[in-house]
């Protein structure tokens, strides 16, 4: 009996200790969950005194302690959901009872009436909303009821178990008894009580939940959501994305409509944070930027250095990454920094504190390419990666059980059941996103050819899962070659043309990832990928346009693809994006135009698109990056074509160029100097031509009149 008591009570202490370290509860549940965790911590002294007591514990008390353990296990899971779960889901999961004001809670009847009214009010509020259908409203209320019911359920279990512990035969101090009785009283008071939530937050989320049109989204609503949900940084957005993916995993890999909508809402918030960040208050650390390892642009005192995006900083050093690598948790670090961390004996991910299942480091070529593009656009020399760090072929550290799971999923991929294929492709998509070892193991098991075969399936969800799984697998360097050699590019192009919008977006992102390898740029360009990328750039969502622009930029680095892009009509689309009010694509459009302008067909198409007035305007009032790209395009247009130079001069470009030459980035200064030199040379040529014309005119006037022969008279 003594051993049984000791093990049971020690188990209770251990669970409470685990609960004690759970923190950072989501804002929608913070008050309730913090109060619950605080009350449970107060029970530890009682458990310790029971453990250390020599007295025999009655059978009834042992049963109550067993019930307490079950209740604590359920509470621990619920508190973890409140700490690690999706913030968006938890906002949807809690009711709007705050609209009723305070009501009497002393009587059970009134509590029942209040809860019934709350459910009715929730349904009326939802059904009256212009973007919510009746069925969706009912589902949302039911979801809230499940979470709310779980909280009240564990509270009732804890109260019942605590009430079953009798102190008469226990050797417990009076102070501890009083403390436990206080906790019991608090549990009784908390039963049935629901704190008033942030109604504005709930209604903001509801207003966007069913919207599919990005253009109709109110930026003020997105800002409030991002701030209140604390989704303003890349780390917070990543954690929220992982939380939603865990929910997808719990569904067997095929998320329902509810989770899909939450994922789309997260995309809207992420797009807002990324596109609007320059107009928002920067994080405190940006006011004191750490030095860049190499290639910091030299600037004048009156020129503000470009702010390094958080995505491009190493989470350890906070400096621009030169050689970004991915660890097993999916986080990216500067190679030298994470290697020092591992050499110091650490076995966890510095950012997430998760245990590393493997010490393998996978180069993040996609991010390195983005960093190089950003450096080029901001006049910063791209950081150079040491040449002696060529990685060896990555080996997976997956356990036999994990490999067995992957093999099972691959069998389902070949199933004749569309449902099995869809679920398996969705699960592989999630596994490939999770960590580097999974990506290697999935490829080693032979998943890539099977996924490529599903790109042409008529089932749009399976197709979307397949292309996104290939996108996630392509993060691994060794997998890029396998994907290309498996003949994936035509299938990806097919999805890019015919798939759902999300599938088309992920197909574009996959092509970008594969095009990091130079020889793949040729293969992708020859496959007919460029015209549908231009179509997505023109017709896609904000995310789709950005994915298409990134892929086109990378593909057009290869000279042979520039003509294909021009012939596909990319220049008119880029010009429209340049002048589109609130379009948020000016940076990408100018970056692509700057590449295309070096090609004869590109130069001709840009000149025919009457781009000079727009370019002059950007040089005069654009961001540092856009000013230099606009100047670079104008340099190419004016090379050997005085018509564009005259037009720019008449539009007053000289003053803007003088300012750019003084305050611009290094590259911007060079381009401005070239244009000013050409304008000066053109003015001198004009003066010389005018002087020669005047001299010839004077010579003609000074010649004596010719004599008239007598015969002529």
From TrEMBL:
<dbReference type="Pfam" id="PF25598">
    <property type="entry name" value="ARM_PUB"/>
</dbReference>
<feature type="compositionally biased region" description="Low complexity">
    <location>
        <begin position="687"/>
        <end position="707"/>
    </location>
</feature>
<dbReference type="InterPro" id="IPR058678">
    <property type="entry name" value="ARM_PUB"/>
</dbReference>
<feature type="region of interest" description="Disordered">
    <location>
        <begin position="683"/>
        <end position="713"/>
    </location>
</feature>
<dbReference type="InterPro" id="IPR057623">
    <property type="entry name" value="PUB12-19-like_N"/>
</dbReference>
<dbReference type="InterPro" id="IPR000225">
    <property type="entry name" value="Armadillo"/>
</dbReference>
<dbReference type="GO" id="GO:0016567">
    <property type="term" value="P:protein ubiquitination"/>
</dbReference>
<feature type="repeat" description="ARM">
    <location>
        <begin position="487"/>
        <end position="529"/>
    </location>
</feature>
<feature type="repeat" description="ARM">
    <location>
        <begin position="569"/>
        <end position="611"/>
    </location>
</feature>
<protein>
    <recommendedName>
        <fullName>RING-type E3 ubiquitin transferase</fullName>
        <ecNumber>2.3.2.27</ecNumber>
    </recommendedName>
</protein>
<dbReference type="GO" id="GO:0061630">
    <property type="term" value="F:ubiquitin protein ligase activity"/>
</dbReference>
<dbReference type="InterPro" id="IPR016024">
    <property type="entry name" value="ARM-type_fold"/>
</dbReference>
<dbReference type="Pfam" id="PF04564">
    <property type="entry name" value="U-box"/>
</dbReference>
<keyword id="KW-0808">Transferase</keyword>
<dbReference type="InterPro" id="IPR013083">
    <property type="entry name" value="Znf_RING/FYVE/PHD"/>
</dbReference>
<feature type="repeat" description="ARM">
    <location>
        <begin position="446"/>
        <end position="488"/>
    </location>
</feature>
<keyword id="KW-0677">Repeat</keyword>
<dbReference type="Pfam" id="PF25368">
    <property type="entry name" value="PUB10_N"/>
</dbReference>
<dbReference type="InterPro" id="IPR011989">
    <property type="entry name" value="ARM-like"/>
</dbReference>
<dbReference type="InterPro" id="IPR003613">
    <property type="entry name" value="Ubox_domain"/>
</dbReference>
<keyword id="KW-0833">Ubl conjugation pathway</keyword>
<feature type="domain" description="U-box">
    <location>
        <begin position="307"/>
        <end position="381"/>
    </location>
</feature>
<dbReference type="InterPro" id="IPR045210">
    <property type="entry name" value="RING-Ubox_PUB"/>
</dbReference>
<comment type="pathway">
    <text>Protein modification; protein ubiquitination.</text>
</comment>
């Amino acid at each position: 009996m003594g051993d049984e008591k000791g093990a049971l009570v020690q188990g209770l202490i251990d669970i409470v200790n685990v609960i004690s370290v759970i923190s950072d509860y989501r804002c929608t549940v913070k008050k309730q969950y913090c109060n619950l965790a605080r009350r449970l911590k107060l029970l530890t002294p009682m458990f310790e005194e029971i453990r250390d007591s020599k007295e025999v514990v009655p059978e009834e008390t042992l049963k109550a302690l067993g019930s307490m353990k079950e209740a604590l296990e359920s509470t621990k899971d619920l508190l973890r959901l409140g700490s690690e779960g999706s913030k968006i889901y938890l906002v949807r999961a809690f009711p709007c009872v705050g609209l009723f004001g305070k009501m009497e809670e002393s009587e059970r009847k009134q509590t029942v009436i209040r809860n019934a009214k709350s459910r009715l009010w929730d349904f009326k509020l939802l059904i009256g909303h212009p973007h919510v259908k009746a069925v969706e409203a009912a589902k949302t209320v039911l979801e809230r009821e499940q979470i709310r019911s779980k909280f009240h359920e564990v509270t009732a279990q804890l109260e019942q178990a605590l009430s079953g512990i009798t102190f008469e035969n226990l050797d417990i101090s009076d102070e501890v008894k009083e403390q436990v009785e206080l906790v019991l009283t608090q549990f009784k008071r908390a039963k049935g009580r629901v704190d008033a939530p942030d109604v504005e937050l709930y209604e903001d989320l509801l207003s966007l939940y069913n919207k599919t049109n990005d253009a109709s989204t109110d930026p003020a609503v997105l800002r409030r959501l991002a701030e209140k949900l604390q989704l303003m940084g890349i780390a917070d957005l990543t954690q929220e994305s992982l939380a939603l993916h865990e929910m997808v995993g719990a569904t067997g890999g095929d998320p329902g409509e509810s989770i899909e909508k939450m994922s789309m809402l997260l995309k809207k918030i992420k797009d807002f944070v990324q596109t609007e960040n320059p107009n928002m208050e920067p994080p405190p650390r940006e006011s004191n930027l750490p030095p860049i390892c190499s290639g910091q642009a030299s600037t004048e005192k009156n020129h503000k250095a470009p702010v390094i995006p958080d995505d491009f900083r190493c989470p350890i050093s906070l400096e621009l990454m030169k050689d970004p690598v991915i660890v097993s948790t999916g986080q990216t670090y500067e190679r030298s920094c994470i290697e020092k961390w591992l050499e110091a004996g650490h076995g966890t991910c510095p950012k997430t504190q998760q245990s590393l299942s493997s010490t393998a480091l996978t180069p993040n070529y996609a991010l390195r390419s983005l960093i190089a593009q950003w450096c080029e656009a901001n006049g910063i020399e791209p950081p150079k990666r040491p040449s002696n760090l060529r990685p060896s072929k990555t080996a997976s550290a997956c356990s036999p059980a994990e490999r067995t799971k992957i093999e099972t999923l691959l069998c389902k991929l070949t199933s004749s059941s569309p449902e099995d294929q869809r679920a398996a492709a969705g699960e592989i998509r999630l596994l490939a996103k999770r960590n580097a070892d999974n990506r290697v193991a999935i490829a080693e098991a032979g998943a890539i050819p099977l996924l490529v075969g599903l790109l042409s399936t008529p089932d749009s969800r399976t197709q979307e899962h397949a292309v996104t799984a290939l996108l996630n697998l392509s993060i691994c360097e060794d997998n890029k070659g396998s994907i290309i050699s498996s003949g994936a590019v035509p299938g990806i192009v097919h999805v890019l043309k015919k798939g759902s919008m999300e599938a088309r977006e992920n197909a574009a992102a996959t092509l970008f990832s594969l095009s990091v390898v130079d020889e793949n740029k040729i293969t992708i360009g020859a496959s007919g990928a460029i015209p549908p990328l231009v179509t997505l750039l023109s017709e896609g969502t904000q995310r789709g346009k950005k994915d298409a622009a990134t892929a086109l930029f990378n593909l057009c680095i290869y000279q042979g693809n520039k003509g294909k892009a021009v012939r596909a009509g990319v220049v008119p689309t880029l010009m429209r994006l340049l002048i589109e009010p609130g379009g948020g694509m000016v940076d990408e459009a100018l970056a692509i135009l700057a590449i295309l302008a070096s090609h004869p067909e590109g130069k001709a198409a840009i000149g025919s698109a009457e781009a000079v007035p727009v370019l002059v305007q950007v040089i005069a009032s654009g961001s540092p990056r856009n000013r230099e790209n606009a100047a670079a395009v104008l340099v190419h247009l004016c090379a050997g074509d005085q018509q564009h130079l005259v037009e720019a001069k008449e539009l007053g470009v000289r003053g803007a160029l003088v300012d750019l030459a003084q305050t611009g980035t290094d590259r911007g200064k060079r381009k401005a100097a070239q244009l000013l030199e050409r304008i000066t040379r053109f003015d001198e040529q004009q003066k010389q031509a005018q002087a020669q014309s005047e001299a010839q005119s004077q010579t003609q006037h000074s010649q004596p009149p010719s004599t008239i022969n007598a015969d002529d008279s």
